[in-house]
Amino acid sequence: MKLRLVAAERLKAVLGGDHFSPLGTGELADGRDRALANRLITTALRRHGQINTMLADLLDKGLPPRSGSFEAVLRLSLAQLVFLPDLGAHSALFLAVEAIKRDSKARHLSGLMNAVLRRAQANSARYGLMDDATLLPAAFAKGWTEAYGAEAVAGFAEALVEGAPLDLTLRDDDPELVEALGAERLIADSVRLESRDRPVEALPGYDEGRWWVQDAASAIPARLMVLDPNKAVLDVCAAPGGKTAQLIKAGYRVTALDNDAGRLERLRQNMARLGYSPKVIEADAANFDPATPFDGVLLDAPCSATGTFRRHPEVLWSRNAGDIAGRVRLQRALLANAYRCLAPGGTLIYCVCSLEPSEGEEQVDWALDALPGLELAPIRAAELAGLEQAVTPRGLVRTHPAMTPGNGNAGMDGFFVARFRRTG
Fold it and tell me: What molecular functions are annotated in GO for this chain (predicted)?
């Protein structure tokens, strides 16, 4: 019962707009309970679109208003009944009813909960055969089909259900460590763990700072900063520090900039574990004015994060056109100031973990028009050995969740990368 209540509380918060983060030992001490609760939550989130279809079929009058934990408990229970049958139908019904009886705002709906779930149980086979097209919001599916094609979008739906493996960036080339991790090599210094039986902090090499967590797509932008050793590079919106670590590893003098004190503290902790010492500055990236311009600037701009839906499925349902338009305006302000921070002849890398062309390709057109002396420095396919298909004819990089890095599987995050050079 505690597991169910804790899971419902977390799912309710995410449905209300919070960012999803897995339950930790503070919420559920027992590892098995924690794993099960996280499985229930993530299944409910990944299957959100299909559960929406089920709710429309099961609730003639829709979800009751001001009903406390009713929706969260119902979604968890539907996820268990239809998509996790190994957990048993009886526990789904019994625990759902008992859970909302403990909520003063929902207990009057216990009869409705029981009736809805019994009806769902009777129709579970039919619900289990629902079209995968309902997994993705219609607006996103339409736009992505136009941008990437129907086959890729079908792969997006599969990637959403499968979730993301754990990708790591190695500090040093270390075949013995790769073997100890049980990992496979992807591209460059990225490796992948398809499965693991322990927390990240318990994996070989963690305490010694021999790797850091970083999706294979997220590791691409910093590799495209091609400067002479010891050049000064500014990492904008740097926390939690994966790209900062890559730039230091490449031999640059790195300044890590972010406006969030909490995230910067996490960056400092990560750098300490890795044995790296960047200069760290807390400031607003839109107004930062360095005394001396930088030879390189890497801007991983705040964005809709739609490319991360394998790990954060909630972004599919919490983003709308207005949100994305606001991100586009912010990105342009940050791009303009990143350009001002760049010395003549310097390199600017712009990237976002978004699948939206308005945050990627269209921002390139804006920057080239609005920022005098800025030109594209096209990325060559040879620079992304093992992922040549991600390089567009224009010399930009576009990855998506149906794209496979190297010989790996399970896809990768959706990322966009452009490289510019300031000529004057």
Answer: methyltransferase activity
CA 172 to chain centre: 25
> Contact at 8 Å (CB) between 288 and 281?
yes
Residue 262 labelled as part of a binding site: no
- pTM for the whole structure: 0.94
Q: Is 341 annotated as a binding residue?
A: no
Q: Is 237 part of any known ligand binding site? A: yes
> CA torsion, points 143, 136, 327, 298, in degrees to nearest 10?
-90
| DSSP H helices in 79-182 | 89-101, 110-122, 124-127, 138-148, 150-162, 175-181
Q: How far apart are CA 158 and CA 44, in angstroms?
A: 15
d(CA 277, CA 288): 21
Q: Is 243 labelled as part of a ligand binding site?
A: yes
Which domains, and CATH codes, for the chain? 2-130 (1.10.940.10), 213-422 (3.40.50.150)
Reference 33, options 10, 76, 2; nearest CA is: 2
What letter represents residue 383's amino acid? E
User: pLDDT by residue for the chain (424 residues), tens digit each?
Assistant: 899 999 999 999 999 999 999 998 899 998 889 999 999 999 999 999 999 999 999 999 999 998 999 999 999 999 999 999 988 888 899 999 999 999 999 999 999 999 999 999 999 999 999 988 899 999 999 999 999 999 999 999 999 999 999 999 999 999 999 999 999 999 999 999 988 888 899 999 999 999 999 999 999 999 999 999 999 999 999 999 999 999 999 999 999 999 999 999 999 999 999 999 999 999 999 999 999 999 999 999 999 999 999 999 999 999 999 999 999 999 999 999 999 999 999 999 999 999 999 999 999 999 999 999 999 999 999 999 999 999 999 999 999 999 988 766 679 999 999 999 999 8
Binding residue per annotation — 382?
Answer: no
Q: List active site positions.
A: 353
Q: How far apart are the first and last CA of the chain?
A: 65
| Residues 258, 282 contacting (CB under 8 angstroms) | yes
Q: Is 350 helix (H, G, I), strand (E, B) or coil?
A: strand
SS3 289: coil
